[in-house]
Amino acid sequence: MKTSKKILVVSDTHGNDTNLKKVISLFGEKGRELEMLIHLGDSYGSREQIQSLVDCPVEAVRGNGDFSPDLPISNIIPIGREKAFITHGHRYHCKMSTELMVDMARDNNASMVLFGHTHVPMAEMVSGVLVLNPGSISLPRQDGHRPTYMVLSIREDNSVDYSIVTM
């Protein structure tokens, strides 16, 4: 049986890459088993700095604490047979509602929203759009305050599964 392709999704590392490096190592040296790393903002680094951690493609967006001009505010990326709208979330008032991000996803024919900013993991279906937040791998805010990240798995048929992982 063929193993699925894995995408690591993280957010809100805030310049502390200790846990990120630990998680990357679970996927081989420099994450060689990963198809992609997605960082959803507040890395406090550049795309180049994030890319230096892994030997796979990196998608990253700018958070409210990031100042690197090479990071976009949002992006639409392919994930398996799906398209995802990725953003940090702060410009879309994500702490109040996911509605604006869902609208952006739908306007761009994306079936998923990936965002950060809240430091709290979540997964819910909103108006037919899967809305996912990996939480924070460095500064978690949910009950128990345990670091979390997300793994997207792309199956052979290109469908996408997700899991939120607690460290």
How would you sum up this structure in a few lines?
13% of the residues lie in helices and 34% in strands. It is mainly β.
Account of the protein in words:
There is one protein chain. With 167 residues, this protein is mainly β. The protein contains 3 helices and 10 strands. It has helices spanning 18-25, 47-51, 99-107, and strands at residues 5-10, 34-39, 58-60, 74-79, 82-87, 112-114, 121-126, 129-134, 148-154, 160-166. The strands form 2 sheets. It has a 5-stranded mixed beta sheet. The protein has a 5-stranded mixed beta sheet with strand order 4-5-6-8-7, with helices on one face. Helix 1 links the parallel strand 1 (5-10) and strand 2. The protein is globular and about 40 Å long. It starts with a strand and ends with a strand. The model has no long low-confidence stretch (mean pLDDT 95).
Low-confidence stretches: none
What is Rg?
15 Å
Largest sheet: 5 strands, mixed
Our count of helices gives: 3
Average pLDDT level = 95
| Beta-strand residue percentage | 25-35%
The gross shape turns out to be globular
Strands of the widest sheet, in order across it, are 3-2-1-9-10
- Approximately how much helix is present in the residues? 10-25%
User: Element order, helices and strands?
Assistant: EHEHEEEHEEEEE
**Distance from first to last alpha carbon:** 28 Å
Q: List the quaternary state of the chains.
A: single chain
Count of beta strands: 10
- Derived from helix and strand composition plus strand pairing, the structural class reads mainly beta
